[in-house]
Amino acid sequence: MSALKAGSPFPEGVSFSYIAPTPETSSVTACGIPQKLDASKEFKNKKVVLVAVPGAFTPTCQANHLSAYIEKLDKLKAAGVDLIIFIAYNDPFVMAAWGKANGIVDDKIIFASDDNIAFSSSIGWTMEGTGRTARYALVIDNGTVTYAEKEAAKGVDVSGVDAVLAKL
Fold it and tell me: With a cut of 70, which residues of the chain have pLDDT below it?
């Protein structure tokens, strides 16, 4: 598989690991049980914003990326977004804790692991030599990619919420 671009179908066989939010797992110290999110299936009938970051709790990802998406959740939903997913190389336990530490204890944003950076590697969007996902954003509308941009540097110019909102 190669890098995705607008007009491409979202690939088959893509899954991520995540811990579904429940009242029992709402505490940041509650672990939960990881499960698979069949992205290929889930994305067929929804408008999805998928954001990849190099790592949970890292400075740019926390301060400039996730916080802006949380601030503009209502605008994303008003633009017809059904599902917002943040992925990183981190395991699903760390990703779940990142969400809970930011006050997301429901399914407003799903925090998932790109297990072994399999998906990001398959599209060629990783941080070379680090074993981490690159910073990028995809919009998938009913199984078709309508926006796909990878950051060239450490900023959030093309993967930040404002860039994504402008393309919805």
Answer: 1-2
